[in-house]
Automatic annotation (TrEMBL):
It comes from Laodelphax striatellus. InterPro entries: Spe-39. This is Vps16 C-terminal domain-containing protein. Transmembrane segments: none annotated. Keywords: Cytoplasmic vesicle, Endosome.
């Protein structure tokens, strides 16, 4: 895993990503001589240094002269450590003297030998940072492992001019987490950097890529609750979630009778977009109950058998279906037919009582062969009601073998 992580930083997509930067790029750029402060205040730094140290002149400048020439204070442009590197560079060997023929031949050979060796072996990170500060040729190509890059970053921060590098390093790390789909870590780092909107949009992007509609809805809902705090953004995401649900709702309502393999069929839509059976059946149940299309509900939960008859096929607990039908004011006949589909008689009786379905209660007592229970419940019914007459018929029937 560590090897894979290190190799990541040398991959082509990271190199391409890094080309947008001139400060902390790890692409195969070869030797470079751009100034370390490129993109921010490079010209100001050089002009100020020239004014201060010139080409061998005095290393001081009066406050009066500074005000007259409108020269910014050095502390605003460069850290003290970086300035010391620049000033101390006057005492070091200048590689440019080679081309001018100002050094002995043996020194030139040693220098060239060192340069060839350094070309293939990464030099100490501190020296590379010094070269970046001085605007001397440098290369980042050989710093391929993550540890070496971290060391390079720490050296730059230690110099005191790591703000720009930190920003660039953060972008590299964000890109790394993004390509590896480490969403939680990516969200954490974006939040730490104060990029809350980027964090929320990344969560939204990941949620939109989930093919299973049920999981996608849950992820989007979680995304809204935990990441979208702004009213405007929250409103749009909530509209998006509602749109997903509305599409299935619309298809069930307007294209239910089409062939199951038709493009706009709700059955085909559920297959194409990974809608699970629970979501599909619940949506279809609500749609047809709202339309009072009670006979169509059987097509949701019942399947025809080869030898005739029908069989229950539901991904939803049947007691939930019964209670939902009751809330949507289904007729007694529909309620009774679905109450009978509850296998456990005790649970069937409990559900029938919870929705006060007298006919369902009477049928369940009969199925339980509980004559005393049926008689006790009969006492609560209006003698003039149809259910009272129905209970009397059940008690008089010889088809039931009562247990009490």
């Amino acid at each position: 895993m560590r090897r894979e992580t290190d190799d990541y930083w040398g991959e082509s997509d990271v190199q391409k990503f890094a080309k947008s930067s001139e400060i902390f790029s790890f692409d195969n750029e070869g030797d470079r001589s751009e100034n370390f402060f490129s993109g921010t205040s490079s010209s100001k730094v050089h002009s100020t240094l020239n004014e201060v140290i010139g080409t061998g002149g005095s290393t001081s400048i009066s406050v009066t002269d500074s005000k007259k020439k409108n020269i910014p204070d050095l502390s605003e442009l460069i850290s003290e450590k970086s300035l010391n590197i620049v000033l101390e560079a006057d005492h070091e060997f200048d590689p440019s003297l080679i081309s001018k023929g100002k050094i002995p031949i043996d020194e030139e050979v040693k220098l060239l030998r060192r340069q060839v060796q350094n070309r293939w072996d990464p030099i100490e990170e501190k020296i590379t940072v010094q070269r970046m500060v001085l605007g001397q040729p440098y290369t980042l190509e050989l710093y391929k492992t993550l540890d070496r890059k971290k060391n390079l970053l720490n050296c730059a921060i230690d110099v005191g001019d790591g703000a720009a590098i930190l920003a660039e390093a953060a972008d590299h790390y964000i890109h790394y987490l993004s390509t590896r789909m480490q969403v939680n870590d990516l969200t954490d780092i974006l939040t730490m950097l104060g990029r809350n909107k980027d964090a929320s949009m990344k969560q939204f992007e990941v949620a939109c890529q989930i093919s299973n509609t049920q999981r996608q809805m849950k992820r989007l809902t979680s995304c809204v609750q935990n990441h979208f705090t702004g009213d405007k953004d929250r409103f749009h995401v909530e509209r998006f979630i509602k749109l997903l649900a509305d599409c299935l709702h619309y298809s069930c309502k307007n294209h239910w009778t089409k062939a199951k393999n038709a493009p706009h069929s709700p059955f085909m839509m559920s297959q194409q977009y990974g809608v699970n059976d629970k979501l599909f059946q619940w949506t279809a149940l609500v749609v047809h109950a709202e339309m009072k299309a009670w006979t169509d509900i059987d097509n949701i939960f019942m399947t025809k058998q080869w030898l005739g008859g029908s069989k229950l096929r539901t991904a939803l607990p049947i007691e939930y279906v019964v209670k939902k039908l009751y809330k949507l004011e289904a007729p007694t006949e529909t309620l009774v037919s679905y109450i009978k589909l509850i296998d456990n008689l005790d649970q069937r009786l409990s559900v029938a009582k919870s929705i006060r379905c007298d006919r369902g209660i009477l049928d369940t007592y009969t199925a339980m062969r509980d004559r005393l229970g049926l008689i006790n419940y009969l006492a609560n019914l209006d003698p003039r009601s149809e259910d009272y007459k129905y209970a009397e018929q059940l008690l008089a029937s010889t088809a039931t073998k009562w247990k009490n």
